[in-house]
Design brief:
Strand content: under 5%
Structural class: mainly alpha
Largest sheet: none
Helix content: over 70%
Number of helices: 4
């Protein structure tokens, strides 16, 4: 029982770290597109909390097996997002 609780705490910490890193990367990339840091911070923060709210709602609707089946594809999408930053070609600026 205690081992399971420790795993849950570690998982919660790692998810928080991933969310913080992805939020930082989104702000960095969108500032170069929209040229306004305040608007980007508001948009990213709203998207972050909206995503959390939708995730909490959906987590009540699906089983644990469903989340285990989408763990690998979700991890691959997150890695792709982090490794392939959004850049604007110099010809469009």
């Amino acid at each position: 029982m205690k081992n399971s609780h420790n795993k849950s705490l570690v998982l919660l910490f790692l998810v928080g770290v991933c969310l913080s890193i992805s939020q930082f990367i989104m702000i960095r990339d969108f500032v170069t597109i929209l040229y306004s840091e305040k608007v980007v911070i508001i948009l990213v923060t709203v998207a972050f909390f909206l995503g959390l709210s939708i995730g909490y709602y959906l987590s009540l609707k699906f089983s644990e097996e469903f989340f285990e089946s989408i763990l690998c594809p979700t991890g691959c999408i997150l890695l792709f997002f982090v490794l392939m930053p959004l850049d604007i070609p110099p010809t469009l600026m």
